[in-house]
Design brief:
Elements (H helix, E strand, L loop, with lengths): L4 E6 L4 E8 L3 E9 L1 H5 L6 H23 L8 E7 L3 H18 L3 E5 H7 L11 E6 L4 E6 L6 E5 L5 H11 L7 H8 L23 H16 L6 H26 L4 E5 L6 H12 L5 E3 L3 H4 L4 H12 L17
Helix pairs in contact: 2-3, 4-11, 5-7, 6-8, 8-9
Bound molecules: 5'-O-[(R)-(carboxyoxy)(hydroxy)phosphoryl]adenosine and zinc ion.
């Protein structure tokens, strides 16, 4: 049987990415142009700057991916592109590039949800076994997603305020660390002890929702109160205490949900999945659970990339799902 080849395009935030994936699981090329350096001095992603970079980069990144794969457009079966959620101006660049390519080469177009992409990054590592549960933790999302089959996404819990990555980035700013702060806090946390007693938002019993804004405020207040007393809390202690609180809640709720929904797999997804403390805590927890398999993607597939978008596109293509040329960037797209 003929191989299936899907081109993926991702421009929802601050990475311009193009990838080629064979038969849904095999990465043939995976090119990511990061804009982090351009946004750093502003302490966060500036939407207008992001759009301009995507315009400049998208064709170059596409050419590089095709070169790496040694593939011509004619060999491609489907073009998958992130439709949303994300920054509208940024999304539009990828969507329009995909539409132009689809039209010019007469290739089916597939609009993909960004979070579905993060979840399907796991399929590039391990075949999915249903039912499964995915803990999605990124800069914009914190969700527990239940899947009983391909393409079925049931959000059983989500954050009521800040996303986990957002909390990391905001706390990092208080500690005067460069954007994005997540990796810096992760590193610092390993040199400190979680001595501070910071809150954990469990919410109502049985709820799989999350809340991180109270924790973020508690860290900021702790820093300011110490300053007023003329004291300084070691940044390592702050980072370790904050990280312990985030991980405690994420891991506990994931384990509970995995039991209640009797899932076969638990998949970690999103930028915060790169967090060493979280990866280790989940591994230790699921080592004890013989009937549940934990899947964690390599770091390069945790942060935004286009291989994960192509992986979703592959399944959509198989199912006969197609987008048409009216496809538009949708910043608030629901999964
Ligand atoms: O998934 P992603 O690349 O972009 C979004 O779709 O949001 O996630 C980016 C987020 C940022 O908030 C960043 O600080 C966080 O992931 N992040 C981390 C780590 N690496 C990236 N957070 C904690 N620990 C890390 N090692
Ligand atoms: Zn993302």
């Amino acid at each position: 049987e003929k191989d299936q080849l899907i081109l993926g395009i991702e421009t929802s935030c601050d990475e311009t990415a193009v990838a080629l994936v064979r038969n849904g699981r095999e990465i043939i090329a995976n090119v990511v142009a990061s804009q982090i350096e351009s946004h750093k001095r502003f302490g966060g992603v500036v939407p207008e700057i992001a759009s301009r970079h995507h315009v400049e980069q998208v064709t170059l990144v596409l050419e590089e991916a095709l070169k790496q794969a040694g593939t011509a457009m004619e060999e491609i079966d489907g073009i998958a592109v992130t439709e949303g959620p994300g920054l509208v101006g940024a999304l539009l660049i990828g969507v329009n590039a995909a539409k132009a390519l689809a039209f010019a080469h007469d290739i089916p177009l597939l609009g993909v949800h960004h979070i579905a992409g993060h979840i399907y990054a796991n399929r590039l590592v391990k075949e999915m076994e249903f039912p499964l549960l995915s803990l999605v933790v990124s800069g914009g999302h914190t969700e527990l997603v239940y899947m009983k089959e391909h393409g079925h996404f049931e959000v059983i819990g989500e954050t009521r305020d800040d996303a986990a990555g957002e909390a990391y980035d905001k706390v990092a700013r208080v500690l005067n660390m460069p954007y994005p702060g997540g990796p810096h806090i992760d590193r610092l946390a390993h040199d400190g002890q979680p001595e501070l007693d910071l809150p954990r938002a469990w919410l109502e019993p049985g709820s799989y929702d999350f809340s991180f804004s109270g924790l973020k405020s508690a860290v900021i207040n702790t820093v300011h109160n110490a300053e007023q007393r003329g004291e300084k809390i070691a940044p390592e202690t702050l980072a370790a205490s904050f990280q312990a609180s985030v991980i405690d809640v994420l891991v506990t709720k994931t384990v509970q949900a995995a039991k209640e929904y009797k899932v076969k797999q638990v998949l970690l997804a999103g930028g915060v999945a790169a967090n060493k403390g979280l990866r280790t805590a989940l591994q230790e927890e699921f080592k004890k659970q013989e009937n549940v398999e934990l899947v964690i993607p390599p770091l390069s597939l945790c942060t935004d990339n286009a291989a994960m978008i192509a992986a979703v596109g592959s399944v959509m293509y198989e199912k006969g799902q197609r987008s048409d040329l009216t496809l538009n960037g949708n910043p608030g797209l629901e999964i």
